[in-house]
Amino acid sequence: MESLAVDYLVIGGGIAGFQAVLSLLPHGPAMLVSKGPLSSGSSYFAQGGLALPWGFTESDIESHVQDTILAGAGLCDPDAVRTIVSGGEEAFESLLRYGVPFDRDKNGQFRTTREAAHARPRIVHAGGDRTGAIILKSLADAAFRQPHFRFLSPYQLYQFRKDSEGNIQGAYFLGERDSDLLEIRAKAVILATGGAGSLFLRTTNPRFQRGDGVSVAYRAGCEIERMAYYQFHPTVLDLPGTQPFLLTEAMRGEGAYLLDSKGDRFMFKYHPEGELAPRDVVARALWIELTSDKQQQITLSVGHLPKGFVRKRFPQVYGHLKELGIDLETTPVPVRPAAHFQMGGIRTDLDGRTGIKGLWAIGEVASVRVHGANRLASNSLLEALVMGRRIVESVVSESSEHFPPKTSTTDGKKIEEMILPEFSGEESWSALKTMLWESAGIVRTIRRVRQGLDWVEENLAGTKGPVHGSRFAYANGLLASKLILQDILTSPVTGANCVLFGPEAGIVESERS
Ligand SMILES: Cc1cc2nc3c(=O)[nH]c(=O)nc-3n(C[C@H](O)[C@H](O)[C@H](O)COP(=O)(O)OP(=O)(O)OC[C@H]3O[C@@H](n4cnc5c(N)ncnc54)[C@H](O)[C@@H]3O)c2cc1C
């Protein structure tokens, strides 16, 4: 087995991972290992932008904090919200230093947009609707310019390397061939592997996002929480024969309408803010409209906006639809909700500590309890950037406590000798995704959740022996699904996050036990 050593090992090449690398590089050599290219994470596809307490005064911060808490349906940790929002100004300034070309108006002032459930315009964006890719490339370029940075891909996390006291001191990775096992010894490991949206049948996430991080961390003994709170984005392209494609909420922020089959706006039936209601309210409204009448089609329409505006403001969305033969400016586009964002994950404190020495977690894989049961639009890039900076102090000061590395419990072992998960069933991603969509989708009933869990249990058969390559990814997918389903049975019931245990789903609270 090949073995490498580095001070800081970051796993995951999204905005959280690259921000962490850049923060740590001044303190020692850092390596970033990723399962795929820059476009393998959700960061690359972020369209709407980056939410900031724009103006950066105390009252601007307070307003952003309140909007986040309100959208989160009472399940946000107010300290976490205040910490993340307050870190926005420094994060933004550091992005400007890395050269991120945020969009400006003709007077040179930064443009800000309003999105759903934001009381005021505070979302900055770049390249119109290419914010994520532009930020990510700027961070990656800055990292690649550093002499002590190394990037390894494609390698998927296999398991953590633990010493005899249980401290994490590196990790093992699988390469492209099953026999390629790579050991990386490190003072500290920062996990930034993103969410699990691609475990659901309909999703906005790239296919790599299948809950690997939470699964490996769970096996290592990390506490996983709030996996029930999965966010569904309401406006995802719904055209037969095409992949789901996000139509950013910023379009509604700029005035786009949601129309029913008759061409009428219907969102005011559900919320006084209409199309700008919190994301979960809009997703649930679409679900109700679409399922109560099978003939119903919901479209997103921008035809009433000034000609040329949408093409310029949302070039990525406009271009994508053009390739499909649709002129967005004249044709309403059919939309339907899809799985989008993991609010829960590996429980951490506000410095990203996981509870296991040597391991930190940040970004979508982590649960720092900032998003509650429903993330406020454009707050996740903010979280990834702020946490990628905040971890530095604790990582640098605490990682040396258990270094140089002691002998690992896995030292000298071959891959076959490592205890890894096995599953007995056939590998079928489409069966898994269909099961999760039906049992943990927008509407959940106890019966469906239990059926889903039974299905997962049948396929997961304990920890029997080594699994490699794609079967390993599948075992992770099963475990992450199980964590989502189990959490639904025990999490507080909330209208947010589209969890409908109430009369609307024909299920009463007492049936949960
Ligand atoms: C279409 C879309 C639009 C969005 N728009 C916005 C927006 O406008 N504003 C906003 O705030 N948020 C938005 N989000 C959410 C936001 O993009 C993500 O929450 C955020 O970018 C997550 O960043 P991350 O660095 O934690 O993870 P990611 O960017 O998802 O990166 C994860 C990385 O981990 C790697 N990885 C995964 N598994 C493994 C493994 N087993 N081993 C090694 N590496 C692994 C992947 O290859 C990838 O490099 C959007 C999401 C999507 C999908």
Task: Report the helical percentage.
Answer: 25-40%
Ends distance:
48 Å
Query: Cofactors and ligands present?
Result: flavin-adenine dinucleotide
Any idea what the CATH superfamily of the domain at 234-339 is called? Succinate dehydrogenase/fumarate reductase flavoprotein, catalytic domain
**How large, in whole angstroms, is the Cα Rg?**
22 Å
Overall mean pLDDT: 90
* Outline: globular
Major sheet attributes: 7 strands, mixed
CATH fold-level assignment of the domain at 234-339? Flavocytochrome C3, Chain A, domain 1
* Count of DSSP H/I helices: 14
Which residues sit in consecutive blocks of at least 5 with pLDDT less than 50? 496-513
Structure, described:
- There is one protein chain.
- The protein has 513 residues and is an alpha/beta fold.
- The protein is 33% helix and 16% strand.
- The protein has 14 helices and 16 strands.
- A hairpin with a 5-residue loop joins strand 6 (156-162) and strand 7.
- The N and C termini lie far apart (48 Å).
- The model is unreliable at 496-513 (pLDDT under 50).
- The protein binds flavin-adenine dinucleotide.
- Flavin-adenine dinucleotide (FAD) is lined by residues 11-17, 33-36, 40-43, 45-49, 131-132, 156-157, 192-194, 204-205, 208-209, 212, 246, 341, 363-364, 378-381, 384.
